[in-house]
Structures are given as C-alpha cells and as structure tokens.
Amino acid sequence: MAVTPPPAPPETRVNLNDPQVVAEKIKTTLPDAVESVSAQAIVVQNDKLLEVARYLHDSLGFDYLNNLTSVDWLDRFEVVYHLTAIRRGGTPLTLKVNAARDNPTVPSLVPVYRGADCQEREVYDLMGVRFTGHPNLRRILMWDGFEGYPLRKDYKEPYYEEDHKPFGTRWDQGHHVIAEDRNPWHDNVKYPGNFDALAFKPPRDEIRTIGVEQAVATKLRTDKIILNFGPQHPSTHGVLRLRATLDGETVVAVEPVLGYLHRNHEKIGERNTYLGNMPFTDRLDYFTSMANNLAYAVGVEKLMGIKPPERAEYIRVIMAELTRWLGHAVAVGFLYNELGAFYTPLIYGLEERELILDLFEAASGSRMMCNYVRFGGVARDVPAGFLDKCQYLVDERLPRKTDELESYLVKNELFLARARNVGVLPGDVAINYSAAGPVLRASGVKYDVRRAEPYSIYDRFEFEIPTGTVGDVYDRIVVRFAEMRQSLRILKQALKGIPAGEIMTGKKNYQVRVPKGEVYGRAENPKGELGFYLVSDGSPNPYRYHVRSPSFIHLGALNEMSAGYKIADLIVIQGSIDVVMGEVDR
Amino acid sequence: MAFGLGLLNGLRYTLSRVLKTYAGDFRHLGRRYDAKEFARRQSVRGDGIITVQYPEEKLAVPENFRYIPFLVYEPALDENGKPKIDPATGKQVIGIERCTACGICAKVCPPQCIWIVRATTPEGKPKPKPAEFYIDIDVCMNCGYCAEFCPFDAIKMDHDYELANYERHVSHIYDMPTLLKSTTYYAKIHPLDWEQEEAARKAKEAAKAKK
User: Fold this and answer.
1) Which end of chain A, C or N, has fewer beta carbons within 10 A?
2) Is residue A288 part of a domain?
3) How many domains does chain B have?
4) What is the CATH number of the domain that holds B94?
C-alpha cells in the first residue's frame, strides 16, 4: 500500500516542529500535561505522556518516532523522545519526561508507536526505567540473569579504571599492566545474590511479540513448535538469533534475541572524549564506516556550531555516497546468499566494493575502519590521483556494474518467485514501526533525511528519492538499485563541483570544546537513519552518548514482516532488511 | 518476456565472468605473477579475476596506510654523513630520539594503549625524554590519532601488518627498542609526508637562523 503524502495543511506556515508552538497546542486540549517548555524540548508530566503522544500522533501528524532514549541525571531519569511528522520533515520534536531515580516508571508508548518496542526494552535493560504497559518488557541486550543497569552513571564495568579518559596512569609514570592482571575477571563480575549458574534457566520459555500473531488456517492438526536458530547460523548475518514459533512450515511469530555482540558502545562513548569516539563509530556498521563518521560529526558540529570548509564538505559527500553504493551492493549480495545463490552474486558486489575500499584506504589509511572525518573537516586531503580514479569509477565502471547486477539479479524468475509479495510491510505500518532508509521507502513512503533535514551540502544536489509500491522483499531490492543510481548521480555532481582549498576549519585540535547542550544529529546511512543523541555538560567527554541504529529498530518490525510466511521466507526477509550486528548490539 | 529468460541471462553473465578470468591468463601465458598484469587486474580498469594469491602476491599499501605506531629516531651519522650501523645488530645507531614524552599521544589515544614513563635527571627533575614507552598492540585500534596529533613528528604509523604470534603477553607489548625505527625507514614508507615534513622543518630552521 502506497502512502501518498496528503496536501500539507494550511498551518504549516507556522513551524509545527517548534516546541513552543506544539506546547501551546497541547495546552489547549490537555491543559495540565506540559510541565515546562524550552526552545529545544517539551517536558511532559509523567502520567500524561501517553495522552500527549496520542494527541501528537493523531492530531498534529507526528507519526514517526525517530529515537527514544534516556539520560541518567543522578537525581532523576529523563526519557527523551524524538518525533517527526513524515510528510513535514524538518528537525525532530524533542519530548521529555522525568522519572524518579528509585524505581523509575514511565508509560509505554508502544500502543501509539510500535517502533518504541525495542527502544523501550533497551532503555529498560541498560538504564532500568520500567515502561508500564509494555507488552514484552524484558532485557534485550544483556542476558536475563544480569544484575545492574550498565548505562547508569554509577555502574562500573569489569576492568573499570576511571570515569573519563584520558586515564591518569598513562603518562608520567605509566608502566604497562595487562588489564587481566590488574583486575582479575571474576573480581569484577557481579551476579544476582542467589545466582547458581547450573540451576539457571533463562526466563524465555514463550515468545512474546508486540504485533498480531498470524492465525493459520489449516486442515491438518498441527502442533506449534519453537524453532531456535542462530546465533551461529550461516544465514543470520553474524550473531543474530531468532526464535520462531512455527505451525508446520508457517511462521506464526518470531522474536529476535539480541546482545551477542553487545559491548556497551554507549558507555565506552561516555568514557571517551568527543574525538575519541570517532574511531568507535567505525565499528557500528562496519560496512559503512565513512557514513557513520559523517553522522557523528554532523551531530557534534551542530552542537559546536561550526561548519567545515567547502572542499571538506564535498569530500564528505563523495565518501558517503561511495559508501552508500557499496553498502547496497553488499546488501544485495548477501540477500542472494540467503536465497541460496551462494556467494557468486555477493562476490560480484564485493569486487566493486574492493575498488572503492582501495580509494578509502588511499585517503584515510584504512579500508574499513576509516576514521576519516574530523569535527570541522576531514583528517587529510585526498591523495593525488584519487579524484581521477573516482571519476572513472563513477562515470564508467559503477554505472555499468549497477546495470549488469540489476539485469541478471532482479529479472531472474527464481528471484521474482521468492521475493514478490513476501515480507510485505505496508507504508503506514512501516512508519509506525520507525522503519527507515530503504525499508521505509520500499513501502512507498517518500522520506529521506537528506531531503527531510538536509545535512552537509545535500541541499545542493539534484537527486530523487526512489520508492517502492508494495513494501515486499522485491521492492527493497529495487529501491536499493535505484538508490545506487541516485548515489552515482550525486557523485557526478560532487566530483564536478569539488573546489580546491582548505579541508579543516581552524586548527586541528584533539581536545574539542563542546558547549553545554544537547543535540540529535542524524544522517541517512545506507541502512537507514543513523542518529546520535549527545548531551554535553561542557566537559571534554559527552555526558550522554546514544546511537539510534536503524538495523536495531528494523529488527523490531521483523515479526510484523514475516508472520504468516514460510520459514524459508523468514531468512529472505531478514536478509532484505539488511541488518549488521555491529550496529544492532552496539 | 518468456519465463526463464531472466534466469538464462544470469547464467550467461556468470559464464562470461568465468571466461574472463581465464582471458587474462591466456594473454599473459607463462607470466601469471607478472607485476604489470597484477597491477592491471587490481586497478579500476581491471576485468576478470581480482583475487590476490596472498602470501605469494601482496597488494602494495598506500602511503597513508596506518597500522600500529612506531617511534621515529634520527640515526647517528658517521664522518661521511651516512647513518652509522651497529655491527652487532645490523641496525642503525640511535642518534636523537624525537619523542619528548609530552604525553599527547597517550592522552589522545581512544583505547588508551600507550603508556609513557618520563625520564628524570639524577636530581629527580623531569627530562623531555621518555624513559620507557609501551604500546599494547592488542589494545591499539589503529586509528592513527597519535601520529596525527604528535607535535614533534615523533610517532608515526607503520605499514607492517603481519603481526601474528603464538603468545600475546610478552611479544604483543611493544617497548622502546621494538618501537624505535629510524628516519630512513620512515622516509621509505612515507615518502611524500617525509618530503613535506623536511621542507617544513628546514623552513622553520631558516626562519630561526634569520632572527
């Protein structure tokens, strides 16, 4: 089902994303719901949150939950919501709600925004905020017997040294000590009081999902069985584990079990300095590190109020669009792996990726862990010969390869039989599940952060936002191919327009000054909207560092997409949303 | 379109790719590991097989390639202006260590894998020189910040990526003797950077001499 954006209502002349304006509107219907309002955010009464969210969703058009996270202020918890109206775009509206430090509870938004499901579970898991009314409030990243809430400010991880880097022991008298010697493993792992490893049984007997369970009409008398596959399954993209209830071969419900690659990226980020986080963002979605760098830099630069020079902006766009091309090529290749076309299509994609990675390596020094973008510019100028090579790729090779890949992959009858009308996610449901990127666009929703809230210099380039019609696996692939073409189109314009000049604003500084404040910086990554929510208290380290990762949120919609299809289709569907576990588990 | 044509087209494409991988071999019959052919295959204009037969073949790394930092020293020169070679080790004799133990690399390092002990004079005053310098290369994430922000060009990123080892507690903790490499080596792996830095250094010295 395609969602055509209805004509914009006459009120759009007032900025409807402005918290002040929205707060006034809320006050007219829910007089005592707003606690306070500032230029950045609306703080809502805890018990009125659900009503406010309903009102925003139904009456003001805020139909998309970008991001949900919380901040530990030591005396209270603050749960932060970022909402967008898909058809309006613009800077997301920030909604906040306070919760007491002991036994914090907040009403769950799952009845309004189903995309809140995984994100609320994450906040519950890592911060310990309980969401009343959430149908499946269980730990999502940590294991079930884990004690403590790792993102709270008073939590100390194993091998804890100090609150903030740089650590004092490193310089002046810094004798090397192996971390395990200083802090033997068992000394720093806490178990619940009466924990007995042998008797422990994880409380995951039944599968709970937030969507509807598909009723399967069958003449056979069948028993439902639970199939558990992953985390070491060749077709689950890394360490993803899925628990599916099956009726015969039909999927009734599926629940992703996450956290096998969890490394508490956000806690590491809060220990690090701002610049120190840049190489860590490479390790989120490790296929698209250049784009991750850009998204993080966009966030921090917004907070610092600096702009990179022209040449740096163009270099960033070139890198980000090359990344998009290779990200989609890899995504398509892996999907064919899932379909049973083992490795041949993937290798054809990887071959072109290799040439792009050569360019990245020449510019940044590393193929995958690029760490290339700096606040206010890029690390170094592109080397001699880079632009010529890039020009050849963009003008000749990549368009040819895109056509070739598309002609023999998308028109293949076996593919069509497996992909058409499989894993359908209608447009309004996709919005409700906070799907982003190609998954959202395949469902017919014309939404792209590069257009909705242009960052860097994307407002200068001509490109289209390709959309699908049905929202099935086939559409997700077709949209990816169309986006690869649009990327090449942007690249052509960028390579034509790239000026000479500086690549860095001001002097290169390893200790950047970030003023007090908070920001939600986001960018359109190949997988979807990658957002960074940063809270700065003026110190060299971020007070709160949250990553809104598209793959993680897409997995929340997996049940909706795959219930009712066959088990073999489930593999294809999870391949079509293109998850990368580095980003899911963080 | 008749059913099956898309499938046949795919098979045709795969077949043509298979044949292309042999085309290069036939064109260069008997010279398979020829450097020129190897470079052509790896370039953006290459076609056919792209696989590198590591470790027989290796891809050349670009100058910016970064892998594990090392400390730069200027070798002691003999009377001809050539670096002195220590006959016992076959290595160049250390003249000046560039590192001043300012600690910027240790502070900027995101995973905090650099440990520096500052040298002191016998009276206990700090000297601008490291007494010890450790890098735990199991912790190092090869981000290159230390080299990027070192104000003395004393720490640089290496190109040697073959570090596999049987144990990690001793051989993967690099100390001063392992880390120190001469400017000759640096000039070899980073020719353009070396040229720029030397030009900047000479300009600075000339400006100083003018005053």
Assistant:
1) N
2) yes
3) 2
4) 3.30.70
Domain C-terminal end among B24, B45, B60: B60
- CB < 8 Å from B in window 501-520 of A: 508, 510
Domain check: are B90 and B135 in the same one? yes
Structural domain boundaries enclosing A20:
16-132
Residues contacting A456, CB < 8 A, separation 6+: A294, A298, A313, A316, A317, A320, A523
B50: nearest CB among A277, A354, A415:
A354
Q: What is the pLDDT of residue A279?
A: 92
DSSP letters for B62-110: PTT--EEEEEEEEEPB-TTSSBPB-TTTSSBPEEEE------HHHHH-T
Q: Is A133 left (phi over 0), alpha (psi -120 to 50) or beta?
A: left
Residue B211: inside a domain: no
Residue in B closest to A509 by C-alpha? B149
- Taking the C-alpha atoms of residue A318 and residue A390, their distance in angstroms, rounded to an integer, is 9
Q: Are residues A127 and A270 in the same domain?
A: no
Residue B52 lies in a domain: yes
Which among A170, A351, A404 is the nearest to B112, CB-wise?
Answer: A170
The tokens for A179 are 């971390």
Q: Which domain holds residue B202?
A: 67-206
**Reported ipTM:** 0.88
| Domain-terminating residue out of A132, A148, A170 | A132
User: Would you place residue A81 in the very low, low, confident or very high pLDDT band (cuts 50, 70, 90)?
Assistant: very high
Subunit contact A366:B173, Cβ cutoff 8 A: no
Q: What is the pLDDT of residues A313-363, one digit of tens each?
A: 999 999 999 999 999 998 888 888 888 888 888 888 888 898 999 899 999
A68 neighbors A124 (Cβ within 8 angstroms): no
Count structural domains, chain A. 2
- Boundary (domain end) residue, out of A75, A99, A132: A132
Give chain B's residues under pLDDT 50.
none
Q: Please, what is the Cα angle at B105 between B99 and B108, to 5 degrees?
A: 165
**Token digits of residue A567:** 């088990």
Tens of pLDDT, residues B151-208 = 888 999 999 888 888 887 888 888 888 888 888 889 888 888 888 888 888 888 888 8
What CA–CA distance (Å, rounded) separates B42 from B114?
Answer: 36
Q: Give A 323-362 residues with CB within 8 A of chain B.
A: 344, 348, 351, 354-355, 358, 361-362
Q: Does the residue B180 lie in any domain? A: yes
Are residue B28 and residue B7 in the same domain, yes or no?
Answer: yes
d(CA A227, CA A252): 11
Domain assignment of residue B95, yes or no: yes
Classify burial at A356, counting beta carbons within 10 Å of its beta carbon; exposed 0-12, middle 13-18, buried 19 or more: buried
Can you say whether residue B142 is alpha, beta or left, with left for phi > 0 and alpha for psi between -120 and 50 degrees?
left
**Which chain A residues contact residue B13 at CB under 8 A?**
404, 407-408
**Mean pLDDT, range A194-219, rounded to an integer:** 61
Distance of CA A433 to the CA centre of its chain: 13
Burial string for B95-116 (b: 16+ CB within 10 Å, else e) reads eebbbbbbbbbbbbbbbbbbbb
| Residue A164 to residue A541: CA distance in whole angstroms | 7
Do B4 and B76 reside in the same domain of the chain?
A: no
pLDDT at A204 over 60: no
To the nearest whole angstrom, how far is the Cα of A170 from the nearest Cα of chain B?
5
